[in-house]
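For the sake of transparency, this paper describes our internal protein records without simplification. The remainder of this section carries one protein's record, kept here as part of the documentation:
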Amino acid sequence: MELVYFILIGAVAGWLASKVMNIQAGLLTIIILGIVGGFVGGWGLAKLGIVIGGGLVGSIIVSALGAVVLIFIYKLITK
């Protein structure tokens, strides 16, 4: 059940990040961005000493922030 929860959070976070960064991507790409963004966001915020509340909303926010960073880096590389 945790895997389904993980994928759903990744999908929502990836969708939010794709809307914020204005990119068009497929569903699988969006889910992967959200999942990897969760790791990037969690690591980056921990290094900065920033704590966002736990739970579903906190997980989505952290994952979306990480996915936004990944999309930003991707756009820099592909220009």
